[in-house]
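User: tokens in, sequence out, please.
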């Protein structure tokens, strides 16, 4: 597990991409679950917030896939 202290204009998705190499398979949502209350800060995180970044789990639930939708024929 590692910790990260936010810098100016940091966003959680970019932090996750830098740490885990991707943002697929709900990794950002998983990090939010590991850091309760972080979602209250909004998209751009304030300076000096400590974020816990544990090792990624082997599997995460894949997001549901929607069937193809046609708006016009």
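Assistant: Sequence out:
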């Amino acid at each position: 597990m590692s910790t990260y202290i936010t810098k100016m204009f940091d966003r959680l998705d970019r932090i996750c991409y830098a740490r885990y190499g991707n943002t697929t398979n709900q990794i950002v949502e998983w990090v939010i679950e590991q850091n309760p209350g972080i979602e209250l800060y909004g998209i751009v995180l304030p300076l000096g917030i400590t974020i816990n970044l544990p090792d990624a789990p082997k599997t995460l639930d894949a997001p549901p896939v929607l069937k193809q939708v046609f708006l016009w024929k």
